[in-house]
Each structure stands twice: as C-alpha cells, then as structure tokens.
Design brief:
The chain is about 25% helix and about 25% strand. Helix 1 runs parallel beside helix 7. The chain is α/β, with parallel strands linked by helices and about 450 residues long. The chain binds flavin-adenine dinucleotide. The site of flavin-adenine dinucleotide has 34 residues, from helix 1, strand 2 and helix 7.
Length: about 450
C-alpha cells in the first residue's frame, strides 16, 4: 500500500464500486484506492430478498475480485477527515493518504422517524450493514407477525419476499396507495392486489403513532387508535444522505445532499461526489429531486470517472430521469421519468397512450404473460415525459428504453415510427409492439 494515489474513493457500494471499475477500465495507469467501512459490502438492491429468496447474507456480497483484477487497492476502514489544503484523508485506524482527486460516495443511511418505540428490541431499519442484516434475517425468519412501516419499493419488496415464508405481514402506508411516489394509481393498485392475493395485509392512509412494547416490540399503534400485534417491525420510510464528512470538510451542501455541478464536481474542483450522498436535479424542471437509486449512482460514477480520466466528451449530468423497476409476486413493474400525476403536478399539459398485449407471440406460446404499457407525452411538441409498464421480464428492457428515449427528447412521432426487432420467444408481436401501440394511442387522442 502506498500513501499517495491519483484517485481515492470513499465508499465501496454502487457508486464507489462503479467509479473504481470505470476509472481503471478507462485509465489503467491511474493509481486508485477505495476505502470503505464494511468488510463485506452488500448488494443493496437485493437486501429485501434476504428474507426468503437468498439463503444467507454471504450470498449477497459485492465481490472484490473484479476491482482487484484491475489493480484497484481496497482498504477497509472509516475515513474520519479530509484535509483539502494538503489533499489528504485520515482514517479511524490512523492511516493517512494523499489524493490527486477524491471521490465521495458515502451513500445514505435509513431514516428513523421521530416516533416512540423505535429503540425497542425487534424494531429494524433496512441498513446495508452485513452484521445487522444477519440479525434482521434471523429475526424475521423466527417471527410470526411482522409489520412493515412504509409502502415504498423497499417495503413492498420486503413484504412480498416475507409472504413467501407464509408470515403474517402487514404494510402500513401513510399515502392512499403503496408505491404512489413511483407509479400512477392504476399500477399501484395492481401491486397491492398481487400482495393481497399473497396474504399481505395493506393498511393505507394510515399513520403509525407509536411502536409499543416493554423491552421488545409487541404492537404498532396507528393514529386512529387501532393496534397491530407484531414480533418484528421493519421501518422502511426512506433514507438520508451521509454528508457529515463533506460538511466537516467545508464543502457546499445543497438542500440535503452534497452540491455538485454537471460533471459531479463539488465546490472543491479536486473532489467529486456521486451516488446517494450527491445532490440530484430533476431532468424535467431542474429542481433538487430525491432519486436515490443504484442505477443513478452507477451512472453518476461513470460520468465522474470519465471526467477524471480526461475524456473530452460532454459527459454532463443534465438531470436525473429516474428509472425504477421492481418485481412483486413474479409480476414486473417499472416506470421511467414522470408519472401522469407527477407531470400534471409540475404543470405539463399531458396526453397519454396505453397498450395491452402479450410478451410473446402468438399468445399461445408457453410462458406468455400479459404486458401493459402506458406512455405520457407533453401535448406541446409530443415529447415523451414518462412511461410505466407491468407484465413479464420484458418490462425491464421496455422501461430502460423509455428512459433513454426521454433522455434523448424523443417524441410520440419518433416512437410511432420506431424500428425494432421481434421474435416469438423474446418479444411481443411486430403488429402489437406495445411501445408503438401506446404511442399510436396517444397520437390518435392528440388528433381527435
Ligand atoms: C433495501 C434496498 C433496496 C434497493 N433496491 C434498489 C433497486 O432495486 N434498484 C435501484 O436502482 N436502487 C435500489 N436501492 C437504492 C440503492 O441501493 C442506492 O441508491 C445505492 O446503494 C446508492 O449507492 P451509493 O454507493 O451511493 O451508497 P451506499 O450504497 O449507501 O454506500 C455507501 C458506502 O460508503 C460507505 N461509507 C460511508 N461513509 C464512509 C466513510 N466515512 N469512510 C468509508 N466508507 C464510508 C458506507 O459504509 C457504504 O458502504 C435500494 C436500496 C435499499 C436499501
């Protein structure tokens, strides 16, 4: 180990890992050091599946080998301070390293709401720490009654996986439906219906007032006075960016996260910030937006790495489109960009198009699944603002395609005349390709 590196990365999850991988791929001559707190870094997105699908936390490890193979050095330690004048960092184990460029990818930690009882035994938040996840995994497997507070994507994915263990699971959500921050109501209702058929109880429009128990949790009390018995409570109500290191170093902080420019540079040109700790701006209106996703973290990591590596391409982050995917009870759901309700809230005059088809052709093919696509366009200019879909696994790629189309300012006319490939075992039929059919539906409405 040396004491001076071209690039030092703090944090080794989605953002830091991708930055290290990309930097060494683009510029193998750079000396890159990655410092992360955790001995065993978890794949964060698969954490809900530790309930039933993944046998142990060790099956969910982000492997070091690809980084080591490229020559990235890894130190397991906590960075306690940054000396910007001397361009050095100091760690908890007393190590000191000098950097040319520094990347902050310190991520986020779960938010604990200020309600009584969150300190009781049996109450968990969903951290990314291996030791705590092991404890949580054991606790939910032993529990009979589990209450999940929060019906966002982490809460519903966890409840879905817990239902595979035949546990008595209740989701308590403050909004009228689960996943309403990600999906329009008609898709959110489908998610709830699937969960209900799997035995999950869903209480919406409900606020948790307190978690009850002596030393260990016994129940959850709602604001209407009702109580739900519980052996384990999982609080999944969002995360907060880890910005204390940046704050201590005197870097500029935005609304809640580290302020960055379009190249992911902080207020210090030698320090970049990426992933959950870095501020994101909406692709549509430029205001701060909480799109804390691994896909966004990895994208920002590539932008920062390309700029540090000296690529002379305009690798700017012009705002986060927000592409979201999940799978509930075997049904894929996804959304890119704005939902119809979010677009209207922002002030867009919108036109939507819908299509329903099957994901293979003919529909008699074994394993065929119903697939629905909804596209949201601005009436002015016909620009694609968002898309949602549900169905089989093709939904993932539909949504990723829609995400790029939004990023590239594609219109409904472009989609209507899109060129594409089909195959009976791989895609919907060429005559009923849902993205085109939904664009056509919107076109028809626009002309009528
Ligand atoms: C349960 C769950 C499921 C999710 N599912 C999805 C999904 O399906 N798709 C998706 O796109 N996103 C998903 N997300 C969101 C995604 O996981 C995050 O957006 C992503 O992990 C952010 O990556 P990051 O590297 O910025 O931060 P983090 O993953 O938070 O990692 C930050 C790392 O930095 C380390 N660190 C912090 N401070 C220091 C320090 N001072 N010194 C050294 N190391 C430090 C931390 O220990 C941590 O390892 C999910 C999140 C959770 C919790």
């Amino acid at each position: 180990m040396k004491d001076i590196y071209d690039v030092i990365i703090i944090g080794g999850s989605a953002a830091g890992y991708t930055a290290a991988l990309t930097l060494k791929t683009l510029r193998n001559d750079l000396d890159v050091l990655l410092v992360r707190v955790d001995e065993k870094a978890q794949v964060p997105c698969a954490i809900p599946y530790l309930a039933a699908t993944l046998e142990t936390c060790d099956k969910n490890i982000l492997p070091d080998e690809p980084l080591k193979k490229l020559g990235v050095e890894i130190v397991v330690d906590e960075v306690l301070g940054i000396d910007r004048e001397n361009k050095t960092i100091e760690t908890a184990k007393g190590l000191k390293f000098r950097y040319g460029k520094l990347i902050l990818s310190t991520g986020s930690t779960p938010f604990t709401p200020p309600i009584e009882g969150t300190n009781l035994k049996g109450v968990y938040t969903i951290t990314k720490k291996w030791e705590i996840l092991q404890e949580l995994q054991k606790a939910v497997r032993e529990a009979k009654k589990i209450v999940v507070i929060g019906g966002g994507f982490i809460g519903v994915e966890l409840a879905d996986d817990l239902s595979n263990l035949k546990k008595d699971v209740t989701i308590v959500e403050i909004l009228p439906h689960c996943l309403l921050l990600n999906l329009d109501e008609e898709f959110a209702i489908k998610v709830e219906e699937i969960l209900k058929t799997k035995g999950v109880k869903i209480m919406t429009n409900c606020r948790v007032e307190a978690i009850l128990g002596k030393e260990k949790v016994e129940a959850v009390k709602l604001s209407d006075g009702k109580t739900i018995p519980a052996d384990v409570v999982v609080v999944a109500v969002g995360v907060r960016p880890n910005i204390s290191l940046a704050e201590k170093a005197g870097l500029k902080i935005g609304e809640r996260s580290i302020a960055v420019d379009e190249y992911m540079r902080t207020s210090d040109p030698n320090i970049y910030a990426i992933g959950d700790c870095a501020e994101k701006r909406s692709f549509f209106i430029g205001t701060p937006t909480p799109a804390l996703l691994a896909s966004v973290a990895a994208f920002e990591a590539r932008v920062a790495a390309a700029n540090i590596a000296g690529l002379r391409l305009p690798r700017t982050v012009l705002g986060v489109v927000g592409v979201f995917l999940t799978n509930i009870g075997g049904e894929a759901f996804g959304a890119a960009g704005l939902t119809e309700s979010a677009a209207k809230r922002i002030g867009f005059d919108v036109i939507t198009g819908k299509a329903e088809t099957v994901d293979r052709h003919p529909g008699t093919m074994p394993g065929t699944r119903k697939t629905e696509v909804k596209l949201i366009f601005s009436k002015d200019g016909g620009y694609l603002l968002g898309g949602e879909a549900c169905g089989g696994s093709c939904v993932g790629e539909f949504i990723n395609l829609i995400g790029l189309a939004i990023q590239k300012h594609v219109t409904l006319y472009d989609l209507y005349t899109m060129q594409y490939g089909t195959h009976p075992l791989l895609t919907p039929s060429p005559i009923a390709y849902p993205i085109i059919a939904a664009a056509l539906d919107a076109y028809k409405k626009l002309r009528s």
